[in-house]
Amino acid sequence: MSTAIFSGASDSTAPLPGAREGRDPSRAIKRGPRRQPAEVVAATQRDRLFDGLVHTVAEKGYANARVSDICQAAGVTRPAFYALFEGKEDAFLATYRHGTGVLLRMMESAYAEAADWRDGARRALRVLLDVLASVPAFATMAIVEIDAVGPAARRERDALLEKFHAFFAEARPRPDVAAPDELVGSVVGGIYATIHRRVAAGRVADLPALLPTLTYFMAVPFLGRSGAAREAITAADGGGSPATAPCAAPS
């Protein structure tokens, strides 16, 4: 299996935004004669703002989240915020890109370890569901609250969904499937819509339970009903260890 599906995605070992509190004492800025270099300080403040934004937006909603709220949650000053971002929307988009990059790299790693696309796609789907469930604030921010941000955020989401198509690059639709060029987009969109409904309903913890159903939905256009049913049974039986976002506390 290919190990380079996504180019330029974030390191899969980087913490997912929202997996930590923004005011995490371990990331306090050192003062005095041994203070950290400016670039290290800026990177630390950015990461704390990523976490602060995720928690603030998940709690208050994007429309009600103020820059001052995000700064307070991150323990970062407003001048430092505006040195890194143009405003709330810019900070949201940067957080979204970084977080989905981390998630994609985790999915890619799971896919690359599989023997074929069926096993790889199922493993990647499990990572998606498990990681979102392990960081509910990020799931809420990235899946639901993105709807309130505007056209730029919708373009980011469309670009993300397009990247998911890579997990089906080696799959071949059944001969009786109409419009095969649109098939993968429909499968990806259906999975995303199902996840969105669960997250919007506040049922983020239930996402891993969707794996057998979504595996069947994902596989049936390519493998037929009997083949998809076998994949769903494999998904229900486990098929690998649960995935947890970097720095997320195990449940």
UniProtKB/TrEMBL annotation:
Residues 1-40 are annotated as: Disordered. Residues 1-13 have a biased composition (Polar residues). The keyword Ion transport does not apply. Residues 43-103 form the HTH tetR-type domain. SUPFAM superfamilies: Homeodomain-like (SSF46689). InterPro entries: Homeodomain-like_sf (IPR009057), HTH_TetR (IPR001647). Pfam families: TetR_N. Residues 66-85 bind DNA. Keywords: DNA-binding, Transcription, Transcription regulation. It comes from the Bacteria. Gene3D superfamilies: Tetracycline Repressor, domain 2 (1.10.357.10). This is TetR/AcrR family transcriptional regulator. It comes from Plantactinospora siamensis.
